[in-house]
Hints:
Elements: H1 2-9, H2 38-146, H3 150-199, E1 211-213, H4 218-224, H5 229-238, E2 241-243, E3 250-254, H6 258-274, H7 279-308, H8 315-322, E4 328-329, E5 332-333, H9 334-351, H10 356-365, H11 379-389, H12 394-401, H13 412-426, H14 435-450, E6 455-461, E7 466-471, H15 478-495, E8 503-508
Amino acid sequence: MFEKLLSIFIKKPERTADQPVSLPEQHNDTSVRPTVSAPVTIKEDVIQKESIIQEAQIRAKEIILEAKDQALKIKADAEAGVKKLQEEVLKLEKNLNIQKAQLETKEKELEERTKTLRQAKEAIEKKQTEVDEIHRQQKEQLEKIASLTRDEARKLLMEKFDKEMAEEKGKRIRQMEEDIRKDADTMAQEILIDAMRFGATDVVVEHTTSKVKLPDDEIKGRIIGKEGRNIQTFEEVTGVQLDMDSAPGEVIVSSFDPVRREIAKVALERLITDGRIQPAKIEEIVEKTQKEIEHIMYKEGDNLCHRVGVYNLPKELIQMLGRFKYRFSYGQNMIEHTLEETRIGVSIATELKADVETVKLGCLFHDIGKVVNDEEGTHVQLGVELLKKYNIPEKVVNAVAEHHEDRPFSSIESAIVALADHISGARPGARSEDYESYIKRMKDLEAAATSFDGVDKAYAISAGREVRVFVKPDRVDDSSAALIAREIARKIELEQTYPGVVKVTVIRETRFSDTAK
């Protein structure tokens, strides 16, 4: 190996230092002479090569030592790894032996426990057999002593037990009823007070107006027009009536449809401002105003839905809800009433753990029939038919149908909607009612009914929405009763003013009695 290393660093010289240096042959020419420094140069070259050889030998020894050290290190590492593995194997073998011993101990314990349990089971079965035998003997003795069979004795015991339980149950029920009665009124009052405090709005009562002020009296003539063509065109297009003579400087717009009245009012104000009052201009401004009012109503309906937290309703229903902006019930604006009622209903439903969404929709839609003007019927009937048309859930429709208690409540949600409606409409300050006008309207309805021949008594009920007429059975037959109902309804329609519709019910009753002596 050493020789190989030497062969890497140096090559053997062609001659040694001991070899004589061959001198060039001498020529007769005296100009050529041997150099004297040649032996010295060769010697230095030899010394230099020997130094290189020594360095190479030293480097080779260092490499060999390093290789030996590396080999020893590798061997030591390998021996350490083997030793570690042997220790781990011994440790695993020791653990396995311990676990094996533990398993053998547990196996022995299980065998002993199984044996003990088997013996205990046998002893229990033996005792059970003895107990069954004793029980059978005692039962036979009892049957002989009591002269009763087993079924008869059981029947007597059960009857006695049922009687005792019935008495105990009755006592407990009465006690629970008393406790509930004590707490129910207090809880109901707290719930209602919280609901009213949460739902009451600052301003609820509002008054509609159908008056349009005139800048001067000359404008009245322009509104009437030549031969009354302007006012006739205006009334035909808007569907309202204009009263020009009730108050100086004002025109009163009369119509039971609040939307028509609002359109007519705004259109008339614009015509007066514009000054060009003629049939063509009237039609143009009324049409433009109608579109604007419809847009306003849709925005109001959508805003109402957002305020109560109801979304994704059909656009037609949102448009109908927007009509509440121009609808008033006894001075109470329908939007404010609906908003207040919905808040009260949601609060009560939350306290009673009822279906809040059903109550919310029921309160929102409960009076929607009041803005359905193209059909006849009560606002409850019209509202129910409208909601069914748009596939509103049945529970919501039932709540609307039952909010005036026209039929029994079908769910707690219906009762909550009715209660919230009563709270919102009946609480002090909610509505402004002209009681004199109200009494006069009720008396006029009754007077219209009693003015017919054969009518015995008449009663206006449901705030003037229905008139019940009792006829004399000896003077009015069934066919005449139907005719009287039609004639009374016609008379009320022609002579009186009223919101919504009035239902006329004629009742003909015949009674026979005798006395047993």
